[in-house]
From TrEMBL:
One of its GO terms (molecular function) is metallopeptidase activity. Keywords: Hydrolase, Metalloprotease, Protease, Signal. This is M6 family metalloprotease domain-containing protein. Residues 1-29 form the signal peptide. PANTHER family: PEPTIDASE M6-LIKE DOMAIN-CONTAINING PROTEIN, SECRETED PROTEIN-RELATED. SUPFAM superfamilies: Metalloproteases ('zincins'), catalytic domain (SSF55486). It comes from the Bacteria.
């Protein structure tokens, strides 16, 4: 049982438990499923080229092929590339029974330029995200919204397949699908229920059975519905954040929230909570996406004691991530989180330690943050932010211990530039 103060208000629970379920429609994740003619180019920069024989090899954990969307490094093929210039074909669609209200470009402006700014900041400029709107008005679907049978958890077949086919057919005269890396579908907000009732937003990522357009497969597509308005009055600042979350899926990132909500990772990653105040991605996700160089990641695989420097994750340059592998599938990640960049609610700057398990699927808890201050209630006062884990970080003088696995991580100091030192001891 949890103490009552930790139970979120009903409105927050509604957002927490239903946001943006990913259906990674990758039937047989793994090898040989990626055929020529898919518009997605796999590979996340430096990670993909890294050999398992490198010093980082023991930290390149991977899941079994049955895992649909894994935290493994490198990311399996089939997703959109996440470095360099990516072109997002962005269409605003409406329906005969839910005609778009106002200008379609106003719907676009609910997400841009904030989404591209968010990615530029989070990626240290490595992801140059270019939304493109070759169709500037509402793209009218031939069937009613109701006819597609869209509801939370709806599979790709048959409704979404029909919707994608209808989008392709309607857009094709004006759009060459070969020119784009993935598809954003911004649905008119008056179609379907309010986000307070249910969140329909979804991505179909690495979809090997997607419809083909102009000779390329529409394998990576994000759909955004309604408005993610939590009623706190912050919609104009925070409502766009569902799109970077959904696009995280097209880049291969799994959901970190679980059936219990955000209690595994809290507000430390946009794949855990994409509402409330702005937040960044975990260092592990930045590594997975190719936004960190191998030199910025250290693999603490050997027994004994080693010390490492960490610079704030939100700041460009310097060492960012120490990984302590436990086996071929899992390990502990160690990084320094501060209140800057996309992290606007960090209330206890310090070293975040979390377990990553590449063998645990999306939405099942592939990442678990270790709480340095258990049952404290947390330090944040920001609305709609998971509070308990907001003070999970370790500060100088504190130590994380997993005695069963013989792992200790001590925060031994911080210097005036904002760097921290951690000491990892393995038995
Ligand atoms: Zn999601």
């Amino acid at each position: 049982m949890q103490p009552s103060r930790r139970i979120r208000p009903r409105r927050a629970i509604a957002l927490a438990s239903v946001t943006a379920l990913t259906l990674a429609v990758s039937t047989s994740a793994g090898t040989g499923r990626h055929t020529a003619g898919t518009l997605t180019a796999a590979g996340a920069g430096p990670v993909a080229a890294l050999a398992r024989s490198s010093p980082l090899g023991p930290c390149m954990i991977s899941g079994r092929p049955t895992v649909q969307m894994s935290e493994g490094v490198p990311t399996t093929r089939g997703y959109s590339r996440s470095t360099g210039t990516v072109h997002a074909l962005t269409v605003m669609v409406d329906f005969p029974d839910a005609p778009g209200q106002g200008h379609a470009l106003d719907r676009f402006a609910e997400f841009f330029p904030q989404t591209q700014d968010w990615f530029r900041t989070s990626s240290y400029g490595r992801l140059d995200y270019r939304p493109r709107t070759p169709i500037r008005g509402w793209l009218r679907m031939p069937k009613s919204f109701h006819a597609y049978g869209i509801e939370r958890g709806a599979p790709f077949d048959p409704g979404y397949r029909q919707l994608v086919q209808d989008i392709v057919a309607s857009a094709d005269p004006k759009v060459n699908f070969k020119s784009y890396d993935f598809l954003n579908v911004l649905v008119t907000p008056n179609a379907g229920p309010s986000a307070l009732d249910t969140v329909l937003s979804v991505s179909f990522a690495g979809n090997t059975e997607a419809p083909v357009a102009d000779g390329v497969s529409v394998a990576n597509a994000s759909f955004v519905y309604s408005r993610q308005d939590d009623g706190s009055g912050s919609y104009h600042r925070t409502g766009y954040r569902v799109l970077p979350h959904e696009n995280g899926h097209v880049f291969g990132l799994p959901d970190l929230y679980t059936a219990e909500g955000g209690s595994a990772v809290g507000h430390w990653d946009i794949m855990s909570e994409d509402w409330g105040a702005n937040n960044d991605l975990l260092g592990w996700h930045k590594w997975k996406l190719g936004w960190l160089d191998p030199a910025q990641v250290r693999c603490a695989a050997a027994s004994g004691t080693s010390e490492y420097e960490l610079t704030p994750l939100a700041r460009e340059g310097g060492p960012k991530l120490v990984f302590v592998p436990l086996d071929r599938r899992s390990g502990y990640a160690v990084e320094l989180r501060t209140r800057e960049g996309n992290d606007e609610t960090v209330c206890r700057p310090g070293v975040l330690i979390y377990r990553v398990d590449a063998d645990v699927d999306t939405g099942m808890g592939p990442v678990k943050v270790h709480d340095s201050q258990q049952d404290s209630g947390g330090c944040t006062r920001s609305p709609n932010v998971h509070a308990e884990l907001s003070d999970a970080t370790f500060v100088p003088g504190e130590e994380f211990t997993d005695s069963k696995r013989g792992v200790r991580v001590a925060v031994v100091g911080a210097d005036l530039t904002g760097s921290y030192r951690v000491r990892v001891t393995r038995g």
